[in-house]
């Protein structure tokens, strides 16, 4: 593992390399402990470079075995090789030469899961961001595009399957039971997109004919015996390929497209050219083992990686500061895909909930950084919600500002102008300026300025003059290393909702650019006056969540309740009710802190009943609306001096109050919504299950709740229902026999299925209350658990630290002790996963003083460990700063 050197990389230091590598040949002689890699590079000095500057190649833990230039071994004085770098003092004066390098690596001992490693006996690679340098010395940076030819040799019995990027070229037999295959990828690509897979895997095959008639062989490779579980992923892949043709005019460009599922993977999946490698949890699914959420995630991740073929691969990033160029844009594309495949309204609400749950706390805490950062110590720590999710929101705003037509023209120009390039955020913005004639320089602040902007708005109506006035003020809070902020261009979609629920037309608007239902804020303060408004409207603001801001809108509960029923914008309708819930929860929290039982006026529970019963609304939408803000959502809204126990009590009290008030209705729905007949993962069926399980959540808090949940569990015919029941049993009735039996029978049934056991770990790791610490400690010894597998670690320790407010933040600090032990144990093998885990403490400063002190101590203890990796040190130091 790379220990920290303290080096900081800065955007302003970007400089093109002196040398280019137009072609790369790789030969792998695979063996678990002793793999030989022969790298043959055609190297050329970049035009305009004077003299013969030294050539410095990146390495990471490498052992050099051989080095030749133009067929001749290099003298020892001509170069310097360390594990981390290869320096050739004086390359040939012609500036054009062949470099041969032989390195030796041990995939079986690679536990960091970067570079070439073994997962379940399968050789696989992970090169983004800087893993290629763990395979061979190279200019391991995204602006070095090279054409790869790859030869793989392995024992046939161990690895009948040999895959790499591009198209297959040749294969054959070798002596001693070995064989080989050669792959050629005609598209120049950066090293981070290189991939190799070799092993014995099952295959699901299909084919796809592109719009222009290219026949593409599709393959999904999974552990033998699990082929059936890849059917949904294959279907999602074909739908993604069609969608990208229809919506963006983008076709696939090789003869084959392969996906391989592996069980040890640091992230979700990887878009290697023509050979995507996936965490198996985003491939394998059937109703017995996967929830509706899993199906939706598989669809989204398959699409995301496929869409990278254009946004990421054909057009890549100049440097890692531009990461959002491929990630934010590709997330935007996968969001749009899912919206088209499912329910757009429901998808949008779910996106906003994710953004608020993950990106907002990041943007509001010590790890805040711009969508395009200007500095980093460890790039692995910048695969963040800000780069991905806020990055996607920024692209969405460009579409909002330009309109769908101009946006598409801009995208077309982007592909036309930059195909084959390693591009920048500036290149991206420029195409939209060029097609629209708009100046996006103020808008560009969304890429450069960190922090979630706050927009405060209030309104007044003058019946006499027919004038409706909106006062709006924006501000961006200070973030690390950025104290002064400039006013942003904030596009706020809005409507003035009249008493009949329809939007009211106005005759004129002054005080801001208002066009097509959007108020464009450009200044800190705007006073927008609408004329021709006879009756006081209810303002519906930030419709569709058009801007990723914290909106604080002064509005009466009556208006909110009205909008919760009548707003034509589904997002704002959801938001109105959600705000009512949040306000009620926060006042209940204050009661609990003051030692009082919270009590609730009847109108909110009544409104919940009205929404639950409204057959005009999609079940999935009703489920989202009736899901109470989570404990972490409440903590974020409260902001400081957090006491997680009081939050938990307040939330449970409101849940009970709503359940009691609607007992009959919710019971009826719980019975009626049961989906009979064959299982289908489609959005409508999933929506019915979601609403029914939301009903169960409420009902489980009532006196006969445990019995009902146990029955729900016993009669479940799919994983979605089973997990919903198991969760309420374990969380609300943990001492009951019902809970114990359900946990035991689930374990007995799924013991052999690691991905399903992850759910069993998650349910218990998120169990509220003090005893969770002991439960998680005990589960760390469970035979299905392993500190070496990222999915296991995330399910048990990750869930505990990020989704168990009361357990993790236990007042005596025992949750933090567990956390420190686990982070340090993981870090020994896998610094990247450890660093990700450590971000769970990023909001430590908003805790009440006692917990705050203990959390700080925990961070200091991690920081004091010897030989800490760059990954973990970076997170700990920024979190404490
Ligand atoms: N580029 C991958 C994606 O977003 C994520 C990833 C990053 C995977 C780094 C592995 C390592 O699709
Ligand atoms: Zn991506």
From TrEMBL:
Keyword line: Aminopeptidase, Hydrolase, Metal-binding, Metalloprotease, Protease, Zinc
Residues covered by the Peptidase M1 membrane alanine aminopeptidase domain: 232-443
Pfam families xref list: DUF3458, DUF3458_C, Peptidase_M1, Peptidase_M1_N
Entry cofactors: Zn(2+)
EC number of the protein: 3.4.11.2
Annotated organism of origin: Pseudaminobacter salicylatoxidans
Domain Peptidase M1 alanyl aminopeptidase Ig-like fold positions: 451-552
Family in the record: Belongs to the peptidase M1 family.
Protein name, per record: Aminopeptidase N
Domain Aminopeptidase N-like N-terminal: 28-193
Domain Peptidase M1 alanyl aminopeptidase C-terminal span(s) in chain numbering: 558-881
Molecular function in Gene Ontology: alanyl aminopeptidase activity; metallopeptidase activity; zinc ion binding
Superkingdom, natural source: Bacteria
UniProt keyword Ion transport, yes or no: no
Major enzyme class: hydrolase
GO annotation (BP), single: proteolysis
Catalyzed reactions: Release of an N-terminal amino acid, Xaa-|-Yaa- from a peptide, amide or arylamide. Xaa is preferably Ala, but may be most amino acids including Pro (slow action). When a terminal hydrophobic residue is followed by a prolyl residue, the two may be released as an intact Xaa-Pro dipeptide
């Amino acid at each position: 593992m790379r220990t920290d050197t303290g080096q900081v990389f800065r955007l302003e230091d970007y400089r093109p390399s002196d040398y280019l590598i137009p072609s790369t040949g790789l030969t792998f002689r695979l063996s678990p402990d002793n793999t030989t890699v022969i790298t043959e590079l055609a190297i050329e000095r970049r035009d305009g470079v004077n003299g013969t500057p030294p050539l410095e190649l990146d390495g990471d833990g490498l052992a050099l075995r051989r080095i030749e230039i133009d067929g001749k071994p290099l003298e020892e004085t001509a170069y310097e090789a360390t594990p981390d770098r290869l320096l050739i003092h004086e390359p040939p004066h012609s500036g054009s030469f062949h470099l041969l390098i032989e390195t030796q690596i041990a995939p079986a001992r690679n536990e960091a899961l970067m570079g070439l490693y073994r997962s379940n006996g399968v050789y696989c690679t992970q090169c983004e961001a800087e893993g290629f340098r763990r395979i061979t010395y190279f200019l391991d940076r995204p602006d070095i595009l090279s054409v790869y030819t790859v030869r793989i040799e392995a024992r046939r019995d161990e690895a009948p399957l040999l895959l790499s990027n591009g198209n297959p070229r040749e294969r054959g037999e070798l002596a001693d039971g070995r064989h080989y295959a050669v792959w050629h990828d005609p598209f120049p690509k950066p090293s981070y997109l290189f991939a190799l897979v070799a092993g014995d895997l099952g295959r699901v095959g299909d084919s796809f004919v592109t719009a222009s008639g290219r026949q593409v062989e599709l393959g999904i490779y999974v552990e033998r015996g699990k082929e059936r579980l890849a059917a949904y992923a294959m279907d999602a892949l074909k739908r993604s390929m069609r969608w990208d043709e229809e919506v963006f005019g983008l076709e696939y460009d090789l003869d084959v497209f392969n996906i391989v599922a592996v069980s040890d993977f640091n992230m979700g999946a990887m878009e290697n050219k023509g050979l995507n490698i996936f965490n198996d949890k985003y491939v394998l699914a059937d109703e017995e083992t996967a929830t509706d959420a899993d199906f939706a995630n598989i669809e989204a991740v398959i699409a995301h990686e496929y869409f990278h073929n254009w946004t990421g691969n054909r057009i890549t990033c100049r440097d890692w500061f531009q990461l959002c160029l491929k990630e934010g844009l590709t997330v935007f594309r996968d969001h749009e895909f899912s919206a088209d495949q499912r329910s757009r309204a429901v998808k949008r609400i779910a996106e906003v909930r994710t953004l608020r749950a993950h990106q907002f706390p990041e943007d509001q805490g010590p790890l805040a950084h711009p969508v395009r950062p200007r500095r980093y110590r460890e790039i692995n720590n910048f695969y963040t919600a800000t780069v991905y999710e806020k990055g996607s929101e920024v692209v969405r705003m460009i579409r909002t500002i330009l309109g769908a037509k101009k946006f598409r023209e801009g995208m077309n120009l982007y592909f036309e102008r930059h195909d084959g390039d390693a591009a920048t955020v500036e290149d991206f913005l420029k195409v939209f300026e060029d097609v629209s004639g708009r100046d996006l320089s103020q808008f560009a602040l969304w890429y450069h300025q960190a922090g979630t902007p706050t927009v405060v708005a209030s309104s007044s109506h003058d019946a006499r003059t027919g004038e409706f006035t909106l006062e709006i003020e924006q501000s961006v809070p200070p973030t690390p290393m950025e104290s002064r902020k400039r006013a942003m261009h904030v596009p706020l979609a809005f409507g003035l909702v009249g008493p009949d629920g329809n939007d009211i037309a106005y005759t004129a608007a002054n005080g801001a650019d208002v066009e097509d239902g959007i108020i464009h804020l450009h200044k800190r303060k705007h006073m927008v006056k609408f004329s021709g408004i006879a009756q006081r409207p209810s303002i519906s603001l930030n419709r569709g969540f058009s801007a990723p801001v914290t909106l604080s809108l002064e509005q009466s509960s009556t208006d909110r309740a009205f909008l919760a029923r009548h707003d034509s914008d589904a997002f704002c309708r959801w938001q109105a009710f959600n705000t009512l819930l949040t306000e009620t929860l926060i006042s209940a929290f204050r009661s609990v802190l003051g030692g009082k039982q919270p009590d609730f006026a009847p109108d909110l529970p009544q409104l919940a009943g009205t929404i639950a019963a409204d057959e005009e609304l999609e079940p999935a939408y009703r489920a989202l609306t009736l899901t109470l803000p989570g404990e972490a959502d409440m903590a974020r809204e409260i902001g400081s001096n957090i006491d997680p126990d009081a939050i938990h009590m307040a939330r449970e009290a409101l849940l009970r109050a709503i359940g009691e008030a609607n007992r009959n209705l919710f019971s009826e729905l719980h019975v009626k919504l049961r989906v009979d007949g064959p299982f289908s993962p489609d959005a409508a069926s999933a929506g019915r299950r979601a609403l029914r399980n939301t009903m169960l959540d409420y009902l489980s808090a009532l006196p006969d709740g445990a019995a009902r949940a146990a029955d729900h569990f016993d009669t479940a015919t799919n994983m979605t229902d089973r997990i919903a029941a198991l969760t309420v049993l374990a969380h609300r009735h943990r001492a009951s026999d019902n809970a114990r039996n359900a946990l035991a029978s689930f374990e007995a049934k799924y013991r052999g299925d690691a991905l399903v056991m992850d759910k069993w770990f998650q349910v218990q790791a998120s169990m509220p209350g003090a005893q969770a610490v002991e439960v998680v400690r005990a589960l760390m010894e469970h035979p299905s658990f392993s500190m070496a597998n990222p999915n296991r670690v995330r399910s048990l320790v990750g869930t505990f630290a990020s989704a168990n407010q009361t357990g993790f933040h236990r007042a005596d600090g025992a949750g933090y002790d567990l956390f420190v032990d686990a982070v340090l144990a993981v870090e020994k093998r896998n610094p990247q996963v450890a660093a990700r885990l450590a971000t769970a403490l990023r909001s430590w400063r908003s805790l009440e003083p006692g917990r705050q002190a203990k959390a700080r101590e925990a961070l200091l203890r991690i920081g004091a460990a010897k030989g800490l990796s760059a990954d973990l040190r970076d997170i700990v130091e920024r979190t404490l700063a």
